[in-house]
Amino acid sequence: LKVRVVRSSPPSSQFKATFQESYQVYKRYQMVIHKDPPDKPSINQVRLVPVSFEDPQFKSSFNQSATLFAKYQMSVHKDTPSDCGENEFTRFLCDSPLEAEHAPNGPECGYGSFHQQYWLDGKIIAVGVIDILPYCVSSVYLYYDPDFSFLSLGVYSALR
């Protein structure tokens, strides 16, 4: 048995060279030990979308996100349809006091409020509402399609 410590952040050349192999061990572990399905969302299926009606991705996915929010609220929190309509969704998870900012030394996406969308087979199955700030990322809310609760998307989102 040989144990090697490789720097992961910033990624060293050893880390980069062994990433796929390490990932495959991780994926197998998750499937065998934690019974994760092989199609559990991966980083390639997560989109970070600025919360802005000016943003084309946000606008094009708004109805799907609002519908998913209502399904989640009614199933998980037993809200009535009138408690989770489009206006309530917008007020609760789209209107933000944060203004978008793109600092030269900040993240590529900039600072502000975002919807982190989890897509599977062309459909949004979860949305994490997050604020990206200069010294932290704040998780505001997460909602998901109850049909996919077996994926533990809340845990996945928190770890991600």
TrEMBL record:
This is ATE1 transferase. One of its GO terms (cellular component) is cytoplasm. The lineage of its organism: Eukaryota, Metazoa, Chordata, Craniata, Vertebrata. It comes from Melospiza melodia. Residues 66-160 form the N-end rule aminoacyl transferase C-terminal domain. Pfam families: ATE_C. Coiled coil: none annotated. It comes from the Eukaryota. The keyword Transferase applies. One of its GO terms (molecular function) is arginyl-tRNA--protein transferase activity.
